[in-house]
Write a structure and sequence with these properties.
The chain has 74 residues and is mainly α. The chain has one helix at residues 3-68. The mean pLDDT is 94.
């Protein structure tokens, strides 16, 4: 092959390697962000589950109070 063609191919390969390296770095950052979002969502779901339990407990207490005061229809 002609030396100019070989140099041109090598230059393009170096550029492609640089671009690929940049993409890999971006992927690492995106994975870190995705982990952070997953952790946030897990915490959110835990809080929501806890709140649902507290609401259910409050409903039971309210039902008992209504029965004692004969305010309920049941």
């Amino acid at each position: 092959m002609n030396e100019k063609v070989e140099n041109l191919i090598l230059e393009h390969l170096r550029i492609m390697r640089t671009d690929l390296s940049s993409l890999k770095e971006e992927m690492v950052g995106m994975r870190a962000e995705m982990r952070a979002v997953k952790q946030y969502m897990a915490g959110f779901m835990t809080d929501e589950t806890r709140q649902d339990g507290e609401i259910a407990e409050l409903k039971l207490r309210l039902d008992r109070i209504e029965k004692r005061l004969e305010l309920s229809e049941g």
